Amino acid sequence: MPLNRESDLYGSTAAVSAGFVLLLAAVATAVFVRSYGFAYAPPTSTAETASLAVEIQRKQRGVRLRQVNSFADNATPEKGIDIIAVHGLDTRSPETWEYKTQDGRKVNWLQDEHMLPVEVSNARIFTCDWPADLFGTLDAEEDTIHELALLLLAAVKGRPPATNDRPYRKDRPILFVASCLGGIILMKALVMASDEYLSVRNATRGIIFLATPFRGTSFQDVARWAEPGLRAWASVQGRRVTSLLDWVNSPTFKLTRLVSEFTQLCHSNNHQGYKVLTFYETRYTNLPAKVPLLSLLLPPSKKELVSKTSAVLDCVPNPLRLDRSHVLMNKFQGPKTSDADYKLVVDSIVDFVEDIRKGTPLEQANAWIRDKHYNKDRLRIERLSGNTLPMDQCYINLALVETPRDNDLKQRSGDDPLQSEHFSFAARLKIETPREHSQVELSKLFEPRKQLDGQMKEPRRILIRGRAGVGKTTLCKKIVHDVVEKEMWSNLFASILWVPLRNLKTWRGPPYGLTEMLHHIYLQQRPDHASLANALRQHVEDSVSLGALFILDGLDEISELLDEQHNPDLLRFLADLLNRTNVIITTRPHVSLPHAFQKPDLELETIGFRSDQVEAYLKAVSTPIVSRNIHSFLQRSPLMRSLVRVPIQLDALCIVWDETLDIDRLQTMTQVYQAIVKRLWKKDIKRLKESQPHVEAMSSQEIENHVMEEIRLLESLAFSGMCSNLIEFQSVHRDAVCDFARPTRTSLPVYETLGRLSFLRTSDGSADPATRTHHFLHLTFQEYFAAKYFVQMWTNKKTLQYVDLNRRKKRCCEISPEDFLRRNKYTGRYDIMWRFVAGILSEEGEDEMSHFFDKIEKEPVDVLGPAHQRLVMHCLNEVPHLPTGLREQREHRILQWMLFERDFTGSSTFARESDIPEGVLNCVLRASRDKTIFLNAFGHSQRHFSDTTMAAVVELFKDEDSYVRWSAANALGNQSTLSDATIAALVELFKDEDSNVRESTADVLGNQSTLSDTTIAALIELFKDKDSSVRRSAAKALDNQSTLSDATMAALIKLFKDEDSSVRRSAGKTLDNQWMLSDATVAALIELVKDEDRDVRRSAANTLGNQSTLSDATIAALMELFKDEDSNVQESAADALGNQSTLSDATIAALVELFKDEDSY
């Protein structure tokens, strides 16, 4: 009927009619939309409707996951999977998944124990509820699809871990079941997942879409009247229509682009792809027939709400149909025998789950590597006793120390002569204590650090050098363990590949490529190795992912492969491998790097234990009595004190030491090694011989009779290796020595015999026993057995015979023991062997010892250099009982050399040696006219003074020369434990007229971990000293005391007002170690943060930061430091607040502003 614009009455009537039609359309449209999955009827009252809707919406603003099945934890973590069901628009769980039977019963196929849960046992099933309301409130911003996708990602990422999973696991596989619009939101979430939500994308393995409208719905056919109607209905209720309707209308550009991005993701996600299946409806929905009065507005219409064209994806070649209308696409009655659609959906889910549990080729490869190469047996840390050392006690921890890159290779090789700058025993074994600032924690290996050019850089290519036995293999095992089990560095690397480079020696190429290497190292035993190796290579080379970290272990073991003449193709591959972006390379110190090797970002060395780690290890593996006895022995033996900082050596000492061992019998390194060797032979006899029930009662001679052939083989291997400068024995070296030594009584093959000896280690335990390489437990064991062979030939007056393992022909060599000694007595790599020779010969009688020392004195003799005196000194140290005249004669020559060095150079490198005979030390202190040179050298020595030497030094406290008194006090600085008498003598020096003496004395006492009340009181008296340097040292001396009395802290607080800033700074730093400070002390520190000296302010802030709880006033004072002109002070204030468990919003805001400052923390 045409409108008559001139008739107001007609116009009014038309307006009323139009409004009625619009309202009727709104009701119809609401019913239409809710036919997607409407689960509840609206209240009759409009007010009640609005009130209830607002309340429901308030409760459902977030996205929540709820597990709906009981989960059995009897599956391995790698078989675990999570199924997450996401509902559609204007509905919620559980109603949307429930089928209503004719008798009113509700069947939830996701939850019913006879339906999906029984089909996918050991899988967790979750429903995911998200804010899907059709109408939103006017008092809050509505959620966009982007925001809903983020909330979905957060909820999935935050789901609770399965109880049978690894505690740090983030990659538990996910299978999504998405209904209608829920599928669109899921697609959006996966496409945009990155950074912190990348784990959700990577964990997703499959998606089943139930009638998801990828190209819109039939709503577009009625949108012209439906959308105004919905807005009208929402207006009546004081609400608004959700904009999510745009995503189920006609296919918009945004929806088309999202589908395209998701399709691309399905094909390219980490080269894995997703398993995707779509289900589409085939029954029509006849809206006009279902909604009263709607037939008056619209003609009859039957069609799918989501057509097949809209519900399928191009990346799914075989979509499946369900014989049901849209409203039932996510509801099933079951069982499978009578509900064909349910059977089709559930069988598809079961197939997906089975395939997902098998894993993608990459997952299968990673699982294989984890199970076969990173398992507990492969990562096992075995002690010499055969017991396993738990990984959390894995040699306590490994210290790494930065190394100058221009180190002299000759120095590293150990062939330098016995010069002082290279001859420190600790330096030779690479067990020197590093400077604190150069130590690098393992977990912080890849943190940014300053480069030589002053720029900060995150290192990615790291070279780690280390000698045998110092812990390189243990380091690799610990890295793999912490990466796999604790997800260390998970924010940096997607995976870790530990490649024992020695395994490449059996690699038969060409071609030499990454795929082939991965197959050779990890996947040879897999029938599908080709596809797995290819998937692993693709993952490694994927520039989008975080990347793989390569642990290239043992570069020194493939030195022959680095020869350009050996195999150019393999060398090119190795160069590419070594030059990878993310790599840790381990090697022994002597290896020269190939020319094509790119300079590492960071070069480190594994070092031995620190003193405190030695103590911790002893407590962990020994009884208290044994621990105390070992500690007492080490105090007397500086050489062994250095040696046991090598982990394997400390372990060897621990297994030989028990509560019945006479510690007075062990005085030298040789005697300790003899005890260790005896104990290990007892262990090995049981492994080599079929039945030896009385082995524990055997004497040393009986043991040697039982393993005579094995000893001969070890001695030949050791001595030939020493002469050939070889410490890693390949099968060709072993065979050459065996042909030479010709063992006759061994019942086992030689390689099997060597494999059962505790004195040897193999780096490639997985290799064919006949082709394994071996090295001695530690270099010193090779030197010990070489010395045993030398002594045997020396005493029997026989020629030394050995194999030159560097030759291919004419390998057998002969030389008399005397000639060998003459040629090599000053060669650095034989130094420990000569010590052992002297120690073993001392048991052969005085004549043999005299003869040996006489030969040492024969030409060539280093008359003007120190090498000869050091050789004599080292050998004397291993001979506890020597004819008096012989010892006195040699010690007198050492004394004369020390005096000559002092007079000629004005210094004494000898006095720093820990091997100087005690008699020489005491003579120097008594007879020298200038004692200060020696005393100053003692201050830099690690030697533990005997009671006699200590008394001689204390006697010098009374010298009339103040410089002598100062030097005598300073000489005690490295003594970890001082007797009460010595401390009392030092306290007396507080009265010395020379301030330098008083200062030095306070410094020495500060090195003691525990001081008596009397000593602390004497130090407090020094707070009143007229010299500021004395006051500073007195305050600093209390720094190592774990607990200070209130009176002591009160005295320190008074120093806060000292006129000298260094005194104030030391007083504040001393309080740094006190965990509980009184209110008065804290108040004084608050005043100190206002000090004019920036170092004082920083020290005060650091001290306050160690308090577990700070008052509002203290926090306010620290916040004021954020305005400090010095960025280091700002950093200390920020660190102090960062240690607090809770902070106010105002404090957090201030911290945020601080971090915006480019010159700040």
UniProtKB/TrEMBL annotation:
- Domain NACHT intervals: 460-589
Matching InterPro entries: AAA+_ATPase, AB_hydrolase_fold, ARM-like, ARM-type_fold, DUF7068, NACHT_NTPase, P-loop_NTPase, PBS_lyase_HEAT
Alphabetized UniProt keyword annotations: Membrane, Transmembrane, Transmembrane helix
- Report the transmembrane regions from the record: 12-33, 174-193
Transmembrane helix in keyword set: yes
Protein's recorded name: Peptidase C14
The record lists the organism as Colletotrichum musicola
